[in-house]
Design brief:
Oligomer: single chain
Strand content: 35-45%
Helix content: under 10%
Strand order of the largest sheet: 2-29-28-27
Number of domains: 1
Shape: globular
Number of helices: 1
CATH class: Mainly Beta
Radius of gyration: 20 Å
Amino acid sequence: MKIRSTRGARAAAALLAAGGLFAAAAAWAAPEAWPGAARPVVAQTADLESLRLPPGFTIQTFAEGLENVRFMAVGPEGDLYASLINRGRIIRLPDRDGDGQADRRVTWAEGLNRPHGLAFRDGWLYVGETNRVTRIADADSDGVGDQREALADLPTEGGGHSTRTVDFGPDGMLYVSIGSSCNVCIEADPRRAAIVQYSSEGTDERVYARGLRNAVGITFHPISGELWAANNGRDLLGDDYPPEAISIVRDGDDFGWPRCINGAEPDPQFGGPGACDGVVRPTLEIQAHSAPLGLTFYTADRFPQEYQGDLFIAYHGSWNRSEPTGFKLVRVRMQDGRPTGEVEDFATGWLQGREHWGRPVAPIVGADGSLYLSDDKAGRIYRISYTG
């Protein structure tokens, strides 16, 4: 798939077509309230045989029955940890016999407020809850998190995007991605639609980058240390506008939301003269409404050389497009730490015509060098390996 980008003519046409509906766009609405959304039908069966990958790659179910599984982290012992956002739970999935399937499911921590992003640091698992960052440790080494500390409080006013993704940079600082409270509006709290930086103790809070409507996925390049983010663009401007954005994020960057779209055009509602002044352009633009979520660089050596160092991004898939798009895992070819411009399908098949049976959320490189991928619709974690 090639990178796609459409511009202001489509935005203006969509805006005029929607008419007075846009007067209320500053308020958040449930997906059912958006006009023009032809939802894909959820398929009744999850068929692993329908998934397609490049020659030599194999996909299998690592674990299943995981309701609303979201982001993952690899623990210091090599086990995979995952957040079950609706259950308020973190689970641990050991694979001691190395057969590519979890031996069992351990409830590692529970009673959390919609836990999402996970990151290990100095023996602690940092968890992005909707309203705070919490860190949890297994103090008595019994395989369960029994020590818990609440760190930074996070904004929740206005509702809207509730996921909080966390990661540590090479500088030892904690980065938290916080989505907007709305589709498009002026936020009262500058920490919304932003990436916020903290110390590992949850202190020294400051906005690192802003104007990111909903950068669900964040990760750091393994060599350059640069922060990368996958940002979900606004709705109500048609099937193909605005493009979703994958961006290198630097300290002080402003990505323009809600006044400017991708540093190129004023937003038709909140823009105006000078709206895009000083706004940073995305590194890549991709199909609108693909809903890119988790992303990771392949840092192991179990894939062929040509895949090593490449960026993998999970497209959660559209709910708000007349023809469904997304529902797949893509690969961004990299060279010297920069994308070559090619974005290609890597794993597809969750979307069958208008039906989908899965929604990829986030990839991560496991301790065994395989690529693991969560799916919150099918309730699975997949293991992708290269068998040649």
